[in-house]
Amino acid sequence: MSEEHDHHNAPPSEPAQRVKALEQLLVEKGLVNSQALDELIDTYERRIGPRNGARVIARAWTDPEYRKRLFENAAKAIEELGFPPGPQGEHMMVVENTPRTHNMVVCTLCSCYPWSVLGLPPVWYKSTAYRARAVSDPRGLLSEFGVDVGGKEIRVWDSSSEMRYLVMPERPAGSESLSEDELAELVTRDSMIGTGLPKSAARRARETNRAAK
Ligand code: FE
After folding, report:
1. Ligand 1 center to residue 21 CA distance, Å?
2. Which of 18, 21, 88, 145 is deepest in the core (most CB within 10 A)?
3. From CA 163, how far away is CA 158, in angstroms rounded?
4. Is 155 helix (H, G, I), strand (E, B) or coil?
């Protein structure tokens, strides 16, 4: 039996209306239980999502022992924080951005993605354009995301059902005084795919001030 890419049976996240219509049909035909479906969707939309990955990165930025464990066995270290691997997180590898290297993740075949730490993949991640250009023109693709990595080498990691990747962005300069929780707020979903960079400490401060008003 081939296990490769069997996760395509997973529920699509968009467009919402089609999902709703499909759900109704399946429930009417007695094929699925509506409550079980709601729980599944809730799990992937809210309880499992990029905030989990952000917590992992913030912990690794602040705790050298955790960071070591994360590079040795990512799935296990992620589970330490209470995020079980699930169907798309059993074989995980964390790839680290450095002053010389920028990492970016794609699934050239389809849409393999580390659900346990990032939730459901964004629409563009599954697009043919992203999947092709991540390989043929990663620098140009990054510039469309508004990311300029200067002269850094760009490494593109091709996900599969055998291995999924999580990018560890560089800890932003000026974030030295932030707590682990505050650091997690800097870590965006895209920065963990490699199509974005973390927020600066200054931007977080502005956003926090605005929210308090
Ligand atoms: Fe895939």
Report:
1. 25
2. 88
3. 8
4. strand
Q: Do the beta carbons of residue 195 and residue 145 sit within 8 Å?
A: yes
Q: What is the reported pTM?
A: 0.79
196 contacts 125 by C-beta, under 8 angstroms:
no
Active-site residue identified among 107, 159, 161, 191: 107
Report the CATH number of the 14-212 domain: 3.90.330.10
Asked if residue 102 lies in contact with residue 152, where contact means CB atoms within 8 angstroms, the answer is yes
How many angstroms separate the first and last alpha carbons of the chain?
57
Q: Which residues are in the CB-under-5-Å shell of ion ligand 1? A: 5, 107, 109-110, 112
Catalytic residue among 2, 34, 112, 161: 112
The residue written with tokens 């990747």 in the block is 165
Q: Residue ranges of the alpha helices (H) in the chain? A: 16-28, 34-42, 50-62, 64-72, 74-80, 115-118, 128-136, 138-144, 180-184, 189-193, 201-212
Question: Per-residue pLDDT tens for 85-127?
Answer: 887 778 999 999 999 999 999 999 988 999 889 988 999 999 9
Written as one letter, the residue type at 149 is V
Give me the phi and psi of 25, to 5 degrees please: -60, -45
Residue-wise pLDDT tens digits, 27-76:
777 767 767 777 776 666 666 689 999 999 999 999 999 999 999 999 99
- Band of pLDDT at residue 163, cut at 50, 70 and 90: very high
Catalytic residue among 2, 13, 34, 111: 111
